[in-house]
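Review form for a predicted model. The reviewer records the input and the model, then writes brief findings.
Reviewer: anonymous (R2)
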Amino acid sequence: MNPDSIVRVKNLTKFFTRGSEKIEVLEHLTLEVNRGEFLALMGPSGSGKTTLLNLIAGLDSPSDGVIEVGDKTISGMSETELAAWRTRHVGFIFQFYHLLHVLTAYENVELPLLLLPLTAKERKKQVLTALDLVGLSDRLHHRPGQLSGGQQQRVGIARAVVSDPDLVVADEPTGDLDSKSAEEILELLVVLKKTLNKTIIMVTHDPRAAARAERILHLEKGKLVHDIPAASYSYEPEPLGGLHG
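Model under review:
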């Protein structure tokens, strides 16, 4: 076992049943992620990349195999145990931000901290630090509808890191952004990885986004087919992000 690893996945299998049919999503997958690494998961639709991300983040449980994160074996946890573990150890970044529109940027970022034994003063310090890290100290009292897509995703990133999690998982974080905003978000993830030494696992369909990571895992039909340094990954340049501003 690599002493620098924070995520260890061993012989992981995930399947669903539809009537009498058994649908394999992941098959006997084994991998490790080092602490402080920025990893991209790529593959065609249905390849299992989002399922793998959800399993590592404790949002789902495997059909077979072992998942270890830090010193915990999360694959054997109950749903209640997983929920408590996620609160302390995982930060989530979503494609469509998942912000509560009735709350301000400050209040959205504070939400994960309400589940932790912190005083109001401690929460305030952590929220202000997180919003400063993403460059939104001047938008504390703005609601999502008053922010651009890129700014909303910055709030989402601040929310993901505010509790100082061991692991940050991002599911298509630039998929709903225009090219300029997408580049800014990716650069921010790189900076946070370097300054906070966060372990980031990002699912993306976009080769230009994946190239900002340090390593790329490519899945096809539930199996790992490529594991390469991002620096050696070649691609045809395409517009980054989605069609929305």
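Findings: The chain has one domain: 5-229.
Further findings: Residues 179-196 form the longest helix (18 residues).
Recommendation: see findings above.
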